[in-house]
Design brief:
Layout (H helix, E strand, L loop, with lengths): L3 H10 L6 E5 L2 E7 L2 E5 L8 H7 L4 E5 L2 E10 L8 E4 L10 H4 L11 E16 L12 E17 L35 H8 L3 H14 L2 E7 L2 E6 L2
Helix pairs in contact: 4-5
InterPro entries: DUF8091 (IPR058404)
Protein name: DUF8091 domain-containing protein
Organism: Aporhodopirellula rubra
């Protein structure tokens, strides 16, 4: 079922209501704005990979994939009821988490007709508390009923391979005009491995390995050698 977040983002990107949910051949396009087709994807990008590949043959396509910065958890005891509690989740999102999804576009991006846009948003997540006498081991005790947009802070636009560095920058700096300037200073013109990359952005090494995988496929970095610490990379010229 379509979430409120998805509906709100369609309205946010459409200039008029008739631009929303437009039939085009075998597909329905979330928003058609002039010559550009806009696909808004709140779920996994794997679900629209084939659709995007087909559309890019003839059209300019913009994929909008929101990055959630803050989530306010709103608990309900009955479906559609008023929240009985609200609290701000301690977890903060970061744009570099988007690399988990960009794995599915590794053979598509960059493309001259493709733009990736990542709005940085805050949301309310509505949870319906489930009351079961015996829960399964991994049962969280709730069902997510809906996700609602509360604020759009900014947006990161990716067109070229070098733009991927924007996802690793501080969110306050990620919209700067010069993508190359967003490369961490101690990674410019030097070789580095995924341990260095993890240290530069403050994440686990296994996450940095996935980031390097996507960036190498896109052409943002290139492998130069291998030693006992692993593959070494350099920012692509």
């Amino acid at each position: 079922m379509e979430t409120s977040l998805h509906q709100q983002l369609k309205s946010h990107y459409a200039a008029t209501p008739d631009q929303i949910e437009v039939a085009m051949g075998a597909y329905r396009i979330d928003v058609v704005r002039g010559e550009e087709l806009i696909e808004i994807q709140c779920a996994s990008l794997s679900a629209i990979r084939r659709k995007v590949c087909d559309l890019l043959k003839r059209h300019d396509v913009r994929i909008v994939k929101p990055s959630v910065a803050r989530t306010r958890i709103c608990k309900r005891e009955r479906k559609g009821g008023e929240p009985v509690s609200r609290r701000l989740s301690p977890k903060r999102g970061h744009p570099h988490e988007m690399f988990e999804e960009l794995i599915y576009l590794r053979d598509i991006f960059p493309h001259p007709r493709l733009t990736l846009e990542i709005p940085i948003v805050d949301v309310n997540q509505y949870r319906l508390v489930t009351k079961k006498k015996r829960r399964r081991r991994r049962d969280p005790g709730y069902i997510v009923e809906d996700t609602e947009l509360t604020q759009v802070h900014d947006s990161i636009e990716l067109r070229e391979a070098v733009d991927l560095w924007r996802l690793l920058a501080d969110p306050q700096e990620a919209t700067a005009s010069d993508s190359a300037a967003l490369i961490p200073s101690h990674l410019v013109d030097v070789e580095f491995n995924t341990l260095d990359l993890a240290g530069a952005i403050g994440c686990a090494r296994w996450i940095a390995q996935r980031i390097a995988y996507v960036m190498r496929h896109a052409g943002a970095i290139e492998s130069t050698s291998r030693d006992k610490t692993g593959v070494r990379y350099r920012a692509a010229a």
